[in-house]
Design goal:
The structure holds two protein chains of two kinds.
Chain A: H1 6-30, H2 35-40, H3 42-52, E1 67-70, H4 76-86, H5 126-139, E2 146-151, H6 158-169, E3 175-181, E4 184-185, E5 188-189, H7 190-193, H8 199-205, E6 209-214, H9 218-228, E7 236-241, H10 264-274
Parallel strand pairs in A: 1-2, 2-3, 3-7, 6-7
Antiparallel strand pairs in A: 4-5
Chain B: E1 8-10, H1 11-25, E2 29-33, H2 37-40, H3 42-48, E3 53-55, H4 60-72, E4 76-82, H5 83-86, H6 91-99, E5 105-110, H7 128-133, E6 139-141, H8 146-158, E7 163-166, E8 171-173, E9 188-191, E10 196-200, H9 204-217, E11 222-226, E12 229-231, H10 235-245, E13 248-255, H11 260-271, E14 276-281, H12 291-297, H13 302-314
Parallel strand pairs in B: 2-3, 2-4, 4-5, 5-7, 6-7, 10-11, 10-13, 13-14
Antiparallel strand pairs in B: 1-8, 6-12, 9-11
The chains are: A alpha/beta, B alpha/beta.
Chain lengths: 278, 318
């Protein structure tokens, strides 16, 4: 079992906290957006960009880079904030989220923002795109790995399962999907809207290698992501158990903050809780 | 001149021939099928290049987004299925995965229109041009015959960006040849004329030629234009024809309220006010039947074009 340097973990934790502050500020300034699903995804995305992925922010089009797709495109504030902290775009640009002419569209536009690998927003398409990218790597004999984060609401989409079947059928093993399992979707708890359990068994039945982790625990995230690279002959799924709205007390587990910006008072409280300056 | 005078050839075979030739020359070409590879003829490519062919089963949504992923990594992806399943069934995937990011995916649709025949309305899509025309970044091509299909596929492979190519199931009259380059966005004047312009697309171009021959007997000189690119539309050739002949008839195997005819009408209303008539399928779904019976039933014959031409000429100068 891999042992992680305490300094690495605390560096990642500080980064995650900073990303959360950016996310809350961006959505507050935009006046609209999806804080809940952005905040649940923070640790996994931070781990990928600050430790796991083979990438170079100075060369966002480098052909051998690892790819990340945020299939749940509404969580893009976290992606943008991570790209900014990593150096793909200026941090000041984060304030332009959802504003006219901004590269930071309300849902990701791969033609607008450096580092954004796929245009998503209409749910359920990202895993298929990831299968295509993984197949391209195989054809080109390249060693890059493709990571796709899917929301648990996207498990309702038939296309997600079409992609799950295809990845397994084509023996794609340079693909890791991470389910941001925050248990909530726009209309309410996922269990009430559309039952998807037993989730791990479903993916196993589809031929995937499955790992379940605490999606806010960096040690578990790093271990699962690194282990997924060693699985041969089949695709990898990580079910990351997360809390929607993680890090902001009144947003945690609150369906109401799926797609709503905080008010001024709520924003100030959130920043106080995150230890940032409003 | 009669329909029997034409050689009948398969667009599907010519598309597959072009695809296999491209596959030999270009390693970046990949092909996707959705359980119809033997019908859409991608099976020929699969035979020669199995590692570059992906059959995803009856999962067209998945096919379109996988194609997008391949294209995002530098591949030229040809995704092929029946027109009904390659447009309406996957409109959102085309819109978000392909057209919005302007990825290099070619949607090659066969079995379009009512000439599908016996399969009936579920398979006879007559709205696909409307759907594809409406998408920003999308190029829409409808070759008139098998040789033009071959040339169009070669041109489409050289063009970088999303393209929709529409063809039918039936063997159709060969009216062009395989020589020369297909120019995307350029209409071809197949026959000059001064009294009326017959603008056709797909199988209807051959009907326009037949109509022009018949009209000649009545001392009416008809220009025939093969409008093989519906988008971007060749405004220059259309407006020139309208001005020089004073009247336009369009003919398409597609719903007449939202297809090529309406694209031409929009072009004329802004540039040249001449009498116009659209020959196409009325605002209805098709049904099972033989191709030629259906063409007659839904008003897609040379006679329908001749009648429309008389109507247009009669309205000139009013």
């Amino acid at each position: 079992m891999a042992v992680y340097d305490k300094r690495l973990i605390s560096k990642l934790e500080r980064k995650a906290n900073l990303i959360r502050q950016h996310v809350v500020r961006m959505i507050y300034l935009a006046g609209s957006g999806h804080p809940g699903g952005s905040l649940s995804a923070v640790e996994v995305i931070v781990a990928l960009y600050f430790h796991v992925m083979n990438i170079d922010p100075k060369k966002p089009d480098w052909p051998n880079r690892d790819r990340f797709i945020l299939s749940k495109g509404h969580g893009c504030p976290t992606w943008y904030a991570t790209l900014a902290e990593k150096g793909y775009i200026p941090v000041e640009e984060l304030d332009t989220l959802r504003k006219l002419g901004s590269r930071l569209q309300g849902h990701p536009d791969m033609r607008a923002c450096p580092g954004v690998e796929a245009s998503t927003g209409s749910e359920g398409q990202g895993l298929s795109m990831g299968v295509g990218m993984a197949l391209a790597a195989r054809l080109d004999r390249k060693l890059y790995h493709v990571y796709v984060m899917i929301g648990d609401g996207e498990l309702d989409c038939g296309q997600t399962w079409e992609a799950a079947m295809a990845a397994s059928h084509f023996h794609v093993d340079n693909l890791t999907a991470i389910v941001d399992r925050n248990m909530l979707q726009l209309d309410g708890p996922t269990a009430h809207i559309m039952s998807v359990e037993p989730l791990a068994d479903k993916w196993k039945a589809f031929g995937w290698h499955v790992t379940e982790i605490d999606g806010h625990n960096f040690k578990e995230i790093l271990r699962a992501l690194e282990k997924s690279k060693d699985v041969k002959g089949r695709p990898n799924l990580i079910i990351a158990h997360t809390v929607k709205g993680k890090g902001v007390s009144y947003m945690e587990g609150a369906v109401g903050f799926h797609g709503k910006a905080p008010t001024k008072e709520e924003y100030e409280l959130a920043m106080e809780e995150l230890g940032g300056k409003p | 001149m009669n329909l029997k005078d034409f050689k009948l050839e398969s667009q599907r075979e010519y598309w597959a021939k072009a695809l296999v030739e491209l596959g030999k020359k270009r390693k970046d070409i990949v092909v996707l099928s959705a359980d119809l590879s033997s019908s859409v003829k991608t099976s020929l490519f699969a035979n020669d290049f199995p590692e570059r062919h992906f059959n995803v089963g009856i999962a067209e949504q998945n096919m379109m987004s996988i194609a997008a992923g391949l294209a995002a990594c530098g591949k030229t992806a040809f995704a092929s299925t029946f027109a009904a399943f390659g447009t309406g069934r996957v409109y959102d995937q085309i819109r978000q995965s392909i057209a919005y990011p302007k990825l290099n995916v070619k949607i090659i649709a066969t079995h379009a229109g009512i000439t599908v025949g016996g399969d009936g309305a579920t398979h006879q899509i007559v709205e696909d041009l409307a759907l594809m025309r409406a998408l920003p970044n999308m190029t829409v091509i409808v070759p008139a015959d098998a040789p033009e299909t071959y040339r169009a596929i070669k041109a489409v492979a050289d063009y970088i960006g999303p393209v929709y190519v529409r063809m039918g199931r039936a063997n159709i009259p060969t009216i062009t040849n395989s020589k020369g380059k297909f120019k995307i966005g350029k209409a071809t004047v197949l026959r000059d004329g001064s009294d009326v312009s017959l603008i056709g697309t797909g199988i209807m171009v051959s009907r326009c030629l037949l109509a022009a021959e018949e009209l000649k007997k009545h001392k009416i000189s008809a220009r025939v234009i093969d409008l093989s690119t519906i988008k971007p539309i060749d405004t220059k050739t259309i407006v020139k024809a309208a001005r020089e002949t004073g009247g336009v008839v369009t003919a398409e195997e597609h719903s007449s309220i939202v297809g090529m005819g309406s694209a031409v009408a929009m072009c004329l209303v802004e540039n040249a006010h001449v009498p116009m008539k659209r020959v196409g399928i009325p605002d209805v779904f098709g049904q099972s039947g033989a191709s030629d019976e259906l063409m007659e039933k839904y008003g897609l014959t040379a006679e329908n074009i001749i009648e429309a031409s008389h109507d247009v000429i009669g309205r000139k100068g009013r």
